[in-house]
Amino acid sequence: MTKRLAILLLALVPGLALAAGGAPLLESGASIGNPASLQRGAAMFMSYCSGCHSLGYQRLSRAAADLGIPEDVAMDKLNFTGAKFGDHIKASMRPADGEKWFGKAPPDLSLIARSKPGGPDWLYTFLKSFYADESRPSGWNNTVLPGASMPHVLWELQGIQRPVYAAGHEGHIERLELATPGKLSPQEYDAAIRDLVNFLTYVGEPAAMQRTSLGVWVILYLAAFTFLAWLLKKEYWRDVH
Ligand code: HEC
C-alpha cells in the first residue's frame, strides 16, 4: 500500500518533466476548472493564434457550450473567419501559404497540450521562451523549440527577451532576460498564457470537462453506498453481539 502511494505521489510531482532539449519546464498550473480563465484563453487563442493555427477537432459551438459562452457572443467575439457556429475552428491562413511564408505550415493545435512530453507545462514554457535572434528569418528563436519558424506573436504583451550566455560555454543560453518590457507585467503575461494553456488543455480533451463533473457524483454515490453498507453491517451484527 505504501509502495503504491509512493508511486502515485511520484507521478503527481510536476517539474520532473524535461523539455526535448533538456531545458527544465516551468510549472503551468494548468487546470480546466476555471470557466472565466477558459473564456479568456479562448479569446486569446482566437485573437493571437487562429490566424495561423486551426483546431481541427474543435467545433466553436461545442466550445461555447462547454465554456458557458452564449452563441451571439461567441459569433461576435470569437469568430473572425465568417465560419458557421457549428464549424470546426479553422485558421484564417491557408496551410500552403503558411508553408510559403514560414517554410513550415503552422500545425493544428487540437492536441498540442497532450502531444508534447510535459503536456501543458511544455506549452506554457514554450510561450515564455521566445527571444530576439537576428540570425533567424523571423527575427525570433525559442529555447524550447530551437530554430522554430514561428514568430513571437505575443511580443507586444510580453516584451522582448534577450539571451544571457553562460560564461565559458560558447553559445549556451543560461537564461532569458526581459530587455524591453511589454504591455503586460511579467506576472500578467504569465497569467494570460496560463489562460491560453488552460483553453488548449480543454481543447485537447473536451470530454474531461464532463468527466470532472461526473467524478463528483461518483464520489457522492460511493460515500452514500459506504454509509448504507455500514448500516447494513450494524444491522447484521446487532443480534450476534
Ligand atoms: C504568424 C503565424 C503564427 C501565429 C499567429 C501563431 N503561430 Fe504557432 N506556429 C507557427 C509556425 C509556422 C509553426 C511551426 C514552427 C516550427 O515547427 O518551426 C508554429 C508552431 C507552433 C507550436 C509548436 C507545434 C509543434 O508541434 O511543435 C506551438 C505550440 C504553437 N505554434 C502555438 C501557438 C500559439 C499558442 C499561438 C497563439 C498565441 C500561435 N502559435 C500563433 C506560426 C504561427
What attributes characterize this protein structure?
241 residues; alpha+beta; Cytochrome Bc1 Complex, Chain D, domain 2; 10 helices; 12% strand; binds heme C
Q: Order of helices and strands, N to C?
A: HHEHHEHHHEEHEEHH
Could you tell me the number of beta strands? 6
What is the typical, i.e. mean, pLDDT?
A: 87
Specify the structural class.
alpha+beta
Radius of gyration: 23 Å
In terms of DSSP E residues, the strand content is: 5-15%
CATH topology of the domain at 18-127 and 140-147 and 186-205: Cytochrome Bc1 Complex, Chain D, domain 2
Unreliable segments of 5+ consecutive residues? 10-20
CATH architecture of the domain at 18-127 and 140-147 and 186-205: Orthogonal Bundle
What overall geometry do the principal axes of the alpha carbons give? globular
Report the CATH C-level class of the domain at 18-127 and 140-147 and 186-205.
Mainly Alpha
